[in-house]
Task: structure prediction
Amino acid sequence: MSEKIFPLPDVGEGLVEAEIVTWKVQVGDVVTLNQPLVDIETAKAVVELPSPFAGTVVTLHGNVGDVIEVDQPLITFEVGGDGAAPVAAVPIQEAPVGEGREAVLIGYGVANEEGVATRKNRRRHGAPSLAPAPVAAATVYASVAPRSTPPVRLYAKQHGIDLATLSGSGRDGLITRIDVERALPTSAGGPDRAGSPIAGPTGTSRFVGRDLESWATGPKEERIPVKGVLRSMSDAMVQSAFSAPHAAVWVRVDATKTVELLEGLRQHPNMAGLRLSPLTIVALAFCDAARHFPGINSSFDAATSEVVVRRSVNLGIAANTPRGLVVPNIKGADELDLVGMALALNTLVDKARSSTTTPEEMLGTTLTITNVGPFGVDAAVPILPPGTGAILAVGQLAKAPWVVDDAVVVRHVVEIAMSFDHRQVDGALASAVLSHVGRFLHDPATAMLAG
Amino acid sequence: MIDEELVQLLTPEGERVSHPDYQSTLGGDEIFGFFRDMAIVRRLCNESTSLQRQGQLALWAPVQGQEAAQIGAGRALAPMDFTFPSYREHGIAWCRGVPPEDMLRIFRAVSNGGWDPQKYRHSVPTVVLGNQALHAVGYAMGVQRDGAEEAVMTFFGDGASSQGDVLESFVWAASFNAPVVFFCQNNQWGISTPSSLQSKVPLFRRARGFGFPGVRVDGNDVLAVHEVTKRALENARLGGGPTLIEAYTYRMGAHTTSDDPTRYRIDAEVEVWKHRDPIERVKSLLVHEYGFKTKDFDEVGDEADVMALKLREDVLAMGRPDPITMFDDVYAAPHPLIDEGRREMIELGISGGSR
Result:
């Protein structure tokens, strides 16, 4: 019996890191050769890694969302003698099981401090089974040159720092950018703030699809590569903002009857298990508005000098996911009834949250809804997804004073705002559409039944 | 796939269809041999993909879905014929007798080729797109000058058919009536570009414009590919000049392991082609016409598993060369630019063979 480490391979050509998307095995699992272990997302694709060994999973060297550098340990296995799969001599090396295991226990604390330092993310690293690899567990690499990464080598060279004079603080002695910064005479990395008592909050927060280190413990300046979902978002917003002249209209609506309708529906046995929300009604209202005013469901084709009007709504829903903002759409949303819309929204949101949205589900959006209410704001003036006519922002639905028959009463009020492409949609049409949505929310039962 | 111009002898369901110009005279054992070839090549491909995902290969170009095109063509070749492949011709290499582990050397970056082209009458993989078509025509013109009775065959894809190299080689082959067969596997996608965008006429019809015949064959029908290729090779050996064969097929996997096909093609298209799987239709024929049993197919599966395990052992035993050696074989003689590159790399500390 011996332990074997599977380091993260370069699954593309020249990739330096990958993010863990899904673990398909757990510590203690017995796996066969080529059994799927994990989905990782690189700058190029989400790919599934098959097991290089038959054996038992001893350690997972990271959590979902963690970014692992190529060649760093991903999984440690315990493999049997005769039954083991053939093993590479380099870089996968053997560690005697007794020694290796003991090192795991002894080295744990040290590893947690030093190993995590190179990681971009640090969520939930307290779980013992997911503890980072101990530095001393096995000498996985033998290298003539000091271990570092090409960008850091270049950085060091540019600043006249000899890597051989540094000791790496990264995992397995990897020399990181921070190590080089610390060696700079002018201390470009800033003062060591590790012990500062007044540095600020220590919690991590989510930003552009990753866990951002806290104000107190994070580096003074951090550069985040624009790629993946962040790249998609930035490209789409730039393309839209600088090609489509945006304008917006907004309205406050008494949506009390929408709230009451939803409460009634939720209690009905036929609706058991169905997740209904105000968003369901807004989606129905927006599609209904498009049926009455098809001009809103249009796009401006500058290449052919034509406006394209579509009599089918692919309803995009802006979804806040662990990876960032994605906008999948519901194809043919105008043909759905209340139950159909609720189911479609549930499926869409579930897939977005679990990162299983396919590219085709994000293509062909004609109208979009962004639901900013859950974030506690009243309204937003959103930017259009490229090639679409309008985007509707829904603010928080909350009790507010409202005038009914010259008396101030408490009602459920929501603010809705709509940005539109002013090349083809004018203020009159946009106002008509938004008023239609508002009337629908004000009295949804009548709108749905009377058309 | 209803297409009057498509030569097909076996439907996707494994039923025989007749064709006015082409008939297969092969017996059950020979067809079972084709099945075995295809099953082993698919297993080889899957194991290689796994090895790449495990960090043991730098890259892999999957062949899944194109096994019939390659086995049908590869088994039509005579021993002395010479072949010039691209980087995806693992089925052809298998037919030429190249050991599987040698096919993987270039993908592990431990060799610039992997085998002796003369030994197997099969050139090493050409990664420069379409370049091998020129090599093939030049070789075929040499065959003419030697007065040898050999045919030359070159393999490329629909994407490469847009390359100048391929189109120039068409001109030269036609002008000199060279004994060459151009075998284009139209797998529908040139990385992310659909072949329908790259060629506004069916690819096989391009040949007519250059002055030689073109044939479109169902590339997932191993019997049809075999007959069409055999005929074209015989024609070349007898002085009839070049032929373009368009094997109409589908790349079920990625362009290479560095590519994510879900970003540019829809699942529904892949589903359609799953029903046209080249191995399943031959299996169906073997069961219904020749009485082959599950046990017979399982034995091939076991054989493929043994091959895959040996392949894995062989690849892992190849080690990792010092990256600095990549400069060694660029030129035969010392070259100042190469020396400079080597020196810079040593200065950057990228050597030692440990990566």
